[in-house]
Amino acid sequence: MIDVIIAGGGPTGLWLASELRLAGVHVVVLERLTEPTRQSRGQGLHTRSVEMMDQRGLLGRFLAVSEKFQAGGLFGGIVKPWPDRLDTAHPYGLATPQPVTERLLNERALELGTEIRRGCEVTGLSQDEDGVNVELADGTRLRSRYLVGCDGGRSVVRKQLGVGFPGEPSKVETLLGDMEVTADPATIAAVVAEVRKTQLRFGVVPAKDGDEGTYRVVVPADGVAEDRATAPTLDDFKKQLREFAGTDFGVHSPRWLSRFGDATRQAERYRVGRVLLAGDAAHIHSPTGGQGLNLGVQDAFNLGWKLAAAVNGWAPEGLLDSYHAERHPVGARVLENTRAQITLLGAEPGPTALRELFSKLMDFEEVNRYVTELITAVGIRYDFGEGHELLGRRMRDLKLKQGRLYELMHGGRGLLLDQTGRLSVAGWADRVDHVVDVSEELDVPGVLLRPDGHVAWAGADQQGLLDRLPAWFGPAVS
């Protein structure tokens, strides 16, 4: 029997597969598409995702094909300078087109031994106490110990589970696509600058992942389509471009065309028995702020080691349920801030006045930092109960006497950073690495990090450490 089947081979599913493979879990990824998509909806990685890439030794691959950017307080079309003293060693994002991200994560998953089956569409499922039966469109039946739906906003897995997906439907819709233009760049830039004075949901810019002369076109749609699964036509783009800009810029030869809305929904539960949801299958929202892809891979980062612990038999009681407990509130906060952002992007007098006020507020360093931490996810703190101020926070990359903290986390295991040399993880050495080293950036004698880098314990007391180890890493072994 397969250990884990992942429905969906996008960034979320591929990242989850790699996390599971680090722990030796037998993973099969089922992807409906026969070939990787050329559509590039996700345009980059925010700071927390950059940190994750570094924690798993992948950052070099992404830096080689990406451009760094710093846009503090990138909120509702308002851009401010990057705030000072952000709690990270990676104070930047990466402009990485989604097809590139998928290619790199696909390569990583294959290197670790993931089995990826394309052209396989999940159509049904059932589960019992021991496993999950998965039905495919071609009549094939598979069985696994667990199933994770990473199959997008129209998730078949979520629908088959009967999990509620409450929220609001799209009220506004936007056309998005890559295509060639005949207008000269100077004219395009001048017209776009004028239109964006009043309409921030408009843009015609060179496509980062396209051939020379290919532009990324973003323009408000004429209402909300009844069937949003149907791609718009080039004529739809021309019509809307003329409506807002007075010209269609001579657009032609589209590479791909799509539409997106501001529908905002979240799954009521991220787990039902042996079936879990992650990424867009668990939450959808406006793409404003570029958080969608990042939220999904961060779901997978939280879930991966916990699901691996369940498969490998050492997960303490409640560990797998902590995935929903920790990530559902994070998803809810993203839905809240994207609702606010889509309001700020409105062209009516009310949203315009609100955007001007919000822009002035973001000139305050504390506000700018708060908003930047919100968008980049570096401000997340999980509720681990009472304790040290670091408890529940993710640890930034620290400079150590013998290297860097993130260099020690590539294997996806727990980590005790011991600055005293007197602590011990005897009994948990098969799950937790013990590193004796010092950092001028850390003012606590020792920290226990989960595989996702969040602080599970901080202090100097061995008994306190022994009290916390079983809660996250199961019983000790002799």
Question: Would you give an account of this structure?
Answer:
One of its GO terms (molecular function) is FAD binding. The protein is α+β, with helices and mostly antiparallel strands and 478 residues long. The protein folds into three domains: 2-167 and 265-376, FAD/NAD(P)-binding domain (3-Layer(bba) Sandwich), CATH 3.50.50.60; 173-261, Alpha-Beta Plaits (2-Layer Sandwich); 399-473, Glutaredoxin (3-Layer(aba) Sandwich), CATH 3.40.30. The protein is built from twelve helices and 26 strands. Strands 1, 2, 8, 9, 10, 11, 18 and 19 form an eight-stranded mixed β-sheet that branches. The chain has a four-stranded antiparallel β-sheet with strand order 14-15-13-16. A hairpin with a 4-residue loop joins strand 10 and strand 11 (141-149). Helix 1 packs parallel to helix 8. The chain is globular, with a radius of gyration of 23 Å. It starts with a strand and ends in a 5-residue tail after the last helix. The mean pLDDT is 94.
